[in-house]
Sequence to fold (130 residues):
Amino acid sequence: MIYVFPAIFTPVEKGYAIRFPDLPGTNSQGKDLANAIYMSRDALATWLDYLIDEGEDIPNPSMTNNVSLDDGQFVTMIDVDMTAYRRHKNSKAVKKTLSIPSWLNEEAEAHNVNFSSILQEALKEHLGIQ
Fold:
């Protein structure tokens, strides 16, 4: 799922301070504009991940023309792919116990099959995941 939220960028002495008006407490900073956008995406993903884990509602994002700005500030929309973020965050290996017929196990072992690799590939194909 891709989310898009407005972020307010405030120029500061060493780059930009960033906050998301729809997500109180979601703040970040960057040493230059490119780094600030990168850091804002990380802050947004981290906060949304927390809301998802806690079963909290994700608020509707404001439109940029409804965001109040102080002098020198600007607003831009920041997007984040939460499916990709959560997949990357949760990529540690998990041990699973499964059962297959002994004849199939013997055949697979005779062909030096990597069970983990085959299971991952089959699960991705079955679930339509790239």
About this structure: Residues 93-130 form one domain. The mean pLDDT is 92.
